[in-house]
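Justification of resources, computational component.

The compute hours requested in this renewal are based largely on the per-chain cost of generating structure records like the one below. Each record pairs the submitted sequence with a full structure-token output. That output is archived, and it is also reused by downstream analysis tasks.
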Amino acid sequence: MPRTYVGAVSSDGEHQIIVGEDNRLAAPHGGSIYERTSFFTIRKLGEYEAAGEFSKPFSAGKYYVDWYEETFDIHYDYDGEGNYKTITFQYLK
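The structure output for this chain reads:
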């Protein structure tokens, strides 16, 4: 499935996440969240959902991440109209 990938790195450089956004019209709206666990390895943390077929908040830059010691929150524009959703993940490494 065609995807667009967007990455974010914590301010201390300890953690890196990668978001895969689905690009096909027939695909479920949203994509997957991954954490880079080593130079060669990424592991899937979970999924996120978006409201519309053309809603691509990460590639549009409509997101931000709050990094914490053991978790992080991703806030993203769910529907392309400024309505943000928050999802929380625990680090793998």
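The radius of gyration is 13 Å. The chain has a mean pLDDT of 88.
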